[in-house]
């Protein structure tokens, strides 16, 4: 019974968060002075479009009838969202859902790969540092971790483009595929996609891993110092068994929620990353939408990023009990 | 060979060096244990009592080979355990065997158990190590019967739980069971009952002694509470060792040591333990000149207790008394020697 109410509470909270975000964006865009629709109207009128046509266009762009009351508009907007209609992009002259549908898989690919690599490196490297705590290896690694963590990923990205793209000409400087390669289930496609993703992923991983490495190191040192590890050593268990069965599992557990939420945060970080690498994922389109004041597209992508983050936290909350037995009996842990 | 005690510490010293820091230019040496000898027999109980920081835990850890002594020898059945460890001994036993026969129970049972494993798998581990030929169901049977024995029934229910689902007393029973399943010769119980409710302490001590007979093991029982140490030692028919600043002030059978303390420090400890003191002596002034423990980095000259000892005389400040072994006990005080320059020397002034 307790457990059920826990899941129920989490679910309600996730739905509520998404709803609040939608409502706030809806309100903000309409309340801002010189909002997008005014902007668009002015632009179209300057271009010499007739006022009645302008109204019709705005209506189709945003599922909005300008002469309706704000509540009616809100109702229309919400029903449209629930049926999966995010409106029409001003810029691309395409439905927002189509643009997101095309771009999202690429962003998810880059970001999930980056986050996975960050955690694989963090767990392995951090564990080694903890194991050799105080050694030169530990010292050098700690300094390097802090150094890399202090570099913004877009700065590293530009450096990588200059070095590997322009000077060494080893890797492409942008775009998600070569012009000649068609998406499909071919080896060529896969290799080309990886080729284009290496630099963005590298810049995310190198700058993102530092803090996680240090977190893992701290966790592992704490576990290594606990009595149950000492007793296991004393029983003469092999180092291998101790490091896997006793240390690794207890040190990795606290990082699990961090892992899921980082995926969510990184989707938001894609805006700058994909602009630097001219990588047409959702972040790239978000940036274009910002520049062109393409509000439907902007809101659509904003919504996707928010939902992704909320889902990540939600999944973390729901699954933590499965991997850490302590959560089941009450002292619950929450990601956020 | 058979005359060798199970475990013997010969003139053992453990010194820790504080490395010179930014502000201090000289490194300091903490004498945690200094020139101490003790032996533990099969099925023995040795309790160590003393103030915080007197070296009880360091001595215990040295005895079970967790801490390397800076001087002296620790022998297990006559073999120096550290030369076995370094491969310099021709003894026909391995470090692994020694390691497994000397086990420990920590004070905090909660942190001694891996939070991510069920009791069954926690207890399976030592069994798998000691009896690799056992099948899964046999192992399970043994664990169930041991759990029943330590008073955790229904065993199947407890075996299926995680450590955090047990009470502190139950956790400590699991820890004890896990140590016993290694079939050790010596278990170091480092304040093993201090974290438990007072009502559970006696029960836990009884359980430890009951299982001692079954598993044929010895205990080194570390406690800061003289009355617990007395109970445990008395029922286990062993010795109490009173430690002061890294040395054994007095060793003897429980009853003798408490009824007729030879060392002034033992009297002080007895005075400080309410349920022991109240019996025959009315409450009185602190039988000690100073409350503060001297710095173990720079221990007092002569007898280490002379700065606080109510009976101290000039001789105590100059000369360090050697332990005087009697039949079953040993006292490190001039007052236990009928002929000593102590008796002719002047008492120390109050403010010394």
From TrEMBL, chain B:
Q: Where is the ABC transporter domain?
A: 7-270
Q: Where is this region: Disordered?
A: 311-352
A Pfam family of this chain: ABC_tran
Where is there biased composition of kind Basic and acidic residues? 311-320
Record key words, sorted: ATP-binding, Nucleotide-binding, Transport
Which Gene Ontology terms describe the biological processes this protein takes part in? Answer: peptide transport; transmembrane transport
Name by which UniProt lists this protein: ABC transporter ATP-binding protein
